[in-house]
Fold each of these.
Amino acid sequence: MDNYYNSLDFSLSQRDIGEKNGYQRGMHDGHAAGIQDGRTQVINEANTTIRQLNKHVSDQDNEIAELKKRLAAKNNELAELKNNFNRNAVIMSAERNTLETLASKQPELKGVIGTIFMSNYNTLCSDAMSKGHFKANMLDDKDYAVIAPKTVNFLQNMNTYSK
């Protein structure tokens, strides 16, 4: 047997086994490399998708932040409008009270007060309606009579005085 291990047959046999193992190993390694390449490609695609989603989320976060800024600005604007409305309501109440007091203290002036007031009121009301600030004259608006009965009563009195 010692001669067999030193023989040409043994050498060829070992070479064949080595080639066979080499082919198998090469096929295995090639297959593994293919799997590794496929795995790497899938991971790269997943990472690309994740980056795109993160960018989309980041863009959405930026858009939300911008919308929050706009909302805050609109809230500030609304608060300012409310303050202006409250100031104007106080001024209008003072004017209404002044005219009512003047008409009650000097009844002979009711016609003049009513005529001047209704002339100005109708002009301003028509202008405001033409600009779309409101849809109906307060004298004709039944909803306004529920919301502001004192003002509607005042307008009706001024309208009556003007006739």
Amino acid sequence: MMRRFDDLPVQAKLATIVMLICSTLVVLMAALFVFDKVVSFRRSMVENHTMLAETIAKNSTAALAFDDPAAALATLSALRVVGDVVEAAIYTGIGREFAVYRQDGQENGTAMKINEKIVAEVEKETMATAAHIFDKGYLELAAPIVLDGKRLGYITIRADLKELFNRLLESIILVVTLIVTLGVLAQLISVRLHRFIARPLMGLLETMERVGSESNYSYRAKKLNNDEFGTLTEGFNSMLAELEKREEELARHRNDLEDLVNKRTMELVMANRQL
């Protein structure tokens, strides 16, 4: 059964308190660090893939204008150097699939369905910039393909978030390592603090036990520092000195009383003899 915190030795309490403080700070800092990393990574990912989509959109205008799917596919194939793009597709102005690029190299079949929200955004006549959404572990992005102010179609890109998840895993491993390291440091710090906190208390406790077991008030606790523990030690020693003084006075009174009783007894004995 685990012992209550109140019943733990002072050194164990110190180690626990230091560990809790350090762990709390590390977890808070790690949470802020991870949050900032996720936000920064997502922002950077959106910016980079938006630039890719807009570049491909510009290079695909001729293919759409002259109804050349092969040229559009060749343009999309440039995405093979971008490791996280799993699929990209070009659609005509009426939403017909025009060309599809897949990371796995498959050429048959239609493209995976992109989130309808961003498709609806780029299909608007007034929409001239890319739209994106993070959905089910992917970044889904769509950008209009425009030539001389006329919207010819749009491009969609789906990119996985494996790199983000890998970075998060690295961060979690780092946090766990820091917590374990702090656990060791907390133990070392508690040993160091033991000199300043636990030792004076242990000295007082040892003196109290000796006084209690031997009923000897001549013992004194050793003052180690000039802090609150030093003041407590002085007060404890003053109390022992007062108790010792009273004990000596009681012993002296007891001896005086015994002498008086003996004297009275002798006087009675002498008086009885004279009778």
Amino acid sequence: METMDFLTRAKNWAKRLKREVVVLWFAARDRAYP
């Protein structure tokens, strides 16, 4: 049971991290290529 809770939290954390990375990548690209 604890393992499933950990997996769920890890999945949500990975999703949030991926979204932040994409946003930062787009922001950096916009600055590099005006």
Amino acid sequence: VGIEDKEMGKLLVKYPWILSNCIQKNYGEIVFLLSAEK
């Protein structure tokens, strides 16, 4: 979970709009962005 928290922190810095939306709603998009980063 700690690693995921760090990844989420990086995402929130890069994509602050994630916070302005419901994270549950955009979870699929967040996972897609994470997989695209690697």
